[in-house]
């Protein structure tokens, strides 16, 4: 059986984002973002209904301040009490899990999209995704970048402007580019 480009994307295999089905999904996501990001002061129930219309799951009490940008939206699961500040970008070609009570600062980018290292494959437009998991009670400072395939453990802290290129263990604070654990004094 031949997989569709969307099935390949969801399976983490090389796929072509120019596929008509994926282009239609991205178009729907853009229309949703237009609606979501156009609102400023609306009742919490309305904002939640908008989020549930596009995201895989949204826990009770989660707040995502617009503007909020996604590739598709349907690969994003947001836990209870999550707070995502202004101008968050989530490229969700693979699953993104955000644990309960996580706090994400303004301008954070969560990027599951990746590209082949082989220049011939890359020139042919192939790409793939690697899932990202953010644990419970994680705090990610403003402007941080979370790169494809990263897992951030519960209660971890990511300093503002950090570039997280590898997993962050539970309870650890990382800072810098690339992000490294702070040494304890």
From TrEMBL:
Entry keyword set: Acyltransferase, Nodulation, Repeat, Transferase
All copies of domain Maltose/galactoside acetyltransferase, residue ranges: 6-60
InterPro entries given in the database record: Hexapep, Hexapep_transf_CS, Hexapeptide_acetyltransf, Mac_dom, Trimer_LpxA-like_sf
Domain of life: Bacteria
A GO cellular-component term linked to this record: cytosol
GO molecular function, one term: acetyltransferase activity
Name of a matching Pfam family: Mac
Keyword Acyltransferase: yes
Keyword Repeat listed: yes
Biological role stated in the UniProt entry: Acetyltransferase implicated in the O-acetylation of Nod factors.
Recorded family membership: Belongs to the transferase hexapeptide repeat family.
UniProt name for this protein: Nodulation protein L
């Amino acid at each position: 059986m031949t997989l569709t480009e969307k099935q390949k994307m969801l399976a983490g295999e090389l796929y072509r984002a120019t596929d008509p089905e994926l282009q239609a999904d991205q178009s729907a996501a853009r229309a949703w973002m237009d609606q979501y990001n156009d609102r400023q002061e609306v009742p919490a129930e309305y904002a939640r209904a908008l989020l549930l219309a596009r995201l895989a799951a949204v826990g009770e009490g989660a707040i995502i301040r617009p503007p909020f940008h996604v590739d598709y939206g349907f690969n994003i699961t947001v836990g209870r009490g999550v707070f995502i500040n202004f101008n968050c970008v989530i490229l969700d070609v693979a699953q993104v899990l955000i644990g309960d009570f996580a706090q994400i600062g303004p301008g954070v980018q969560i990027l599951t999209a990746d590209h082949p290292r082989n220049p011939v494959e890359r020139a042919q437009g192939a790409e793939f995704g690697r899932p990202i998991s953010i644990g419970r009670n994680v705090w990610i400072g403003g402007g941080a970048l979370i790169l494809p395939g990263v897992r951030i453990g519960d209660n971890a802290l990511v300093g503002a402007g950090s570039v997280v290129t590898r997993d962050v263990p539970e309870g650890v604070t990382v800072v810098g580019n690339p992000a490294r654990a702070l040494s304890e004094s």
